[in-house]
Amino acid sequence: MRYLIAVDIGTTSAKALAVDVAGNVLVSNQRFYPTQFGRAGEAEQNPLQIFDAVADLIRSTNTSLPELSLEGLVFSAAMHSLMAVDTLGNPMTPLLTWADTRSTQQAHSLHEHALQLTIETGTPVHPMSPLCKLLWWRQHNPKVFTEAFKFVSIKEFVVFKLTGLFLVDHSIASATGCFDVTHRIWSSKALALAVCSE
């Protein structure tokens, strides 16, 4: 019998379900990980700790069904997270979760562009948005901003660690505040603001 493992990378834990072709849940597992909160609105997690939790979930779920054939993995994840990685995919920063509000000032600085950006990207200009987090990094840690190979979400990081490929789906891309949801391409306006706005 064939089955899939569905993994949800949530804010406080990762959960895995083994599901057969009829949609029946065969096994469920969960692993928790902490969030570090700071007084300036920081909400950070260790991306390697999250990956370890996901990898352990996949191993333990698969091991518990030795007589069955694993056909694939499916992932969902909390939106609006962001971290920097180097050319090898190693973390350069902690993961900033959706709850991180340190970029409140940067969100305010985009006020005159907010309506157009929201219409184009489908994501409100808000401190949770990766667009505002990018602005914060550019202004407060320009070394990371200029030296990072990529800025990715936790879902992209986990997929890279499993496959060696940086891939992003439309749902995660649409939550960045940098993706034109109508034309399904990265928004030149949002990216220009991330690089050039004051």
Please sum up the structure shown.
This protein is 36% helix and 25% strand. By secondary structure, it is of the alpha+beta class.
Structure description:
The chain has one domain: 2-Layer Sandwich (Nucleotidyltransferase, domain 5). Strands 3-2-1-6 form a 4-stranded mixed β-sheet, covered by helices on one side. Strands 4-5-8 form a 3-stranded antiparallel β-sheet. It has a two-stranded antiparallel ribbon with strand order 7-9. A hairpin with a 4-residue loop joins strand 2 (13-20) and strand 3. 36% of the residues lie in helices and 25% in strands. The protein has helices at 47-63, 104-109, 114-121, 130-140, 142-147, 154-163, 170-174, 188-196; strands at 2-9, 13-20, 25-32, 36-37, 43-45, 69-77, 83-85, 95-96, 150-152, 179-180, 185-186. It is elongated, with a radius of gyration of 18 Å. The model has no long low-confidence stretch (mean pLDDT 95). By secondary structure, it is an alpha+beta fold.
